[in-house]
Specification:
Layout: E1 3-11, E2 16-17, H1 23-31, E3 46-48, E4 54-59, E5 65-72, E6 75-82, E7 89-90, E8 106-107, E9 113-118, E10 123-128, E11 135-136, E12 145-148, E13 155-163, E14 166-174, E15 182-183, E16 189-190, E17 195-201, E18 207-214, E19 217-224, E20 233-235, E21 246-249, E22 255-260, E23 263-268, E24 274-276, E25 284-290, E26 297-311, E27 319-322, E28 332-337, E29 340-345
Antiparallel strand pairs: 1-26, 2-3, 2-26, 4-5, 5-6, 6-7, 8-9, 9-10, 10-11, 12-13, 13-14, 14-15, 14-16, 17-18, 18-19, 19-20, 21-22, 22-23, 23-24, 25-26, 26-27, 28-29
Length: about 350
């Protein structure tokens, strides 16, 4: 008897896509209220389309290459590919992989090194674009997320520290970059383990954007840099953010590109206006990265699809039973009898 089971299938036809004709659209978004979303004005170019998940793209300073994370075996590793190259180069072979939650690659201003967060334990590492062994930036210091200012003079670090069975989360600064980190003053954080998703210096270096989730909900903050010239400001507090948004800055340092609710959104940090940029019919658009000139974006797009199939025990080919654009899972066998019918889960024998 054939036993139908569920099958997990990844659809990653455009794992990292580069809409290369967004300059006019973005210009309208930043300075006027945009018209209704017109997807016909976008041009999508698949960039990395391997079967394995490929996420968290990051543009090189000259806009000619993209670093990103790819699942290799059971872990994510750092990849590098030039826009005109046919294949990517794997830069890391970390035994425990690269942290994919807050692990977007960070380029040095010169474009010769890439920084990333390694897993178990979380540490900040760097590796040369030309290859070689990764080097720990702050040896022995737990770091959950990091950003490097555009001039390369300061690191913004997010650290979760456990002491006396309690967690605390806070923003730290290393200035000049590589100097022993110190807490941002006045202290920004709490005696709580925040789930941080993104930390980014604005291109002009005047602010640090932070998105995280803590008890009570999701928050997005602008933290002034250097300290003292203004107070931290929370954005979008009137909007219920169901997930922690990943984001990147536009070159003007006033607008953001954010990933929320499966789509990409343009955000004005002054007026706190959000406008949808993409509307995928299926799956999620995530991990946006804006090119240095602001004319293109790279982002990851993926979808899960569960189908019901029949797996013959005689070794013959698998046969689809229910395979549509929707998710089909948890197959049940319906048995009819004289007293009606009943359900039971299908199990392989």
């Amino acid at each position: 008897m054939a036993a139908p089971v569920s099958r997990h299938r990844w659809l990653l036809a455009a794992a990292i896509a580069i809409p290369s004709a967004l300059a006019i659209t973005f210009a309208a978004l930043w300075f006027t209220r945009p018209p209704a979303l017109d997807l016909s004005r976008y041009h999508y170019t698949p960039f990395a389309t391997d079967a394995e998940p490929e996420i968290n793209p990051s543009w090189s300073p000259d806009g000619k290459s993209i670093a990103y994370l790819k699942r290799v075996g059971r872990q994510y590793q750092l990849m590098l590919r030039a826009l005109d190259a046919p294949v990517a180069v794997q830069l890391t072979k970390m035994p425990d992989g690269v942290d994919f939650l807050t692990g977007r690659p960070i380029w040095s201003p010169e474009g010769n090194r890439i920084f990333f967060i390694g897993r178990r334990p979380n540490r900040l590492w760097s590796v040369a674009v030309a290859g070689g062994e990764p080097q720990e930036v702050f040896p022995g210091m737990p770091i959950n997320a990091a950003s490097l200012s555009g001039d390369g003079k300061a690191f913004a670090l997010w650290r979760q520290i456990r002491q006396d069975k309690k967690f605390s989360s806070s923003l730290w600064i290393s200035s000049p970059a590589g100097a022993p980190p110190r807490k941002y003053e006045p202290a920004f954080g709490n005696d709580e383990a925040y789930q941080l998703n993104s930390i980014r210096f604005s291109p002009d270096g005047a602010n640090i954007g932070l998105s995280f989730q803590k008890t009570g909900g999701t928050e997005f903050w602008l933290i002034p840099w250097p300290e003292g010239h203004s107070a931290p400001r929370r954005l979008f507090s009137n909007r219920h953010l169901t997930v922690v948004p990943q984001f990147d800055w536009m070159p003007d340092s006033k607008h953001l590109l954010m990933a929320m609710e499966g789509s990409l959104w343009a955000a004005d940090t002054k007026g706190e206006i959000l406008e949808r940029v993409t509307a995928p019919p299926m799956g999620d658009d995530d991990s946006p990265a804006v090119s240095p000139d602001g004319h293109r974006i790279a982002f990851s797009s993926g979808n899960e699809d569960y189908d019901i199939v029949s797996v013959p025990l005689d070794g013959s080919p698998i046969q689809p039973i229910l395979a549509t654009a929707r998710n089909e899972s948890s197959a049940l066998l319906v048995t009819f009898g004289p007293d009606g019918f009943y359900y039971r889960p299908i199990r392989a024998r």
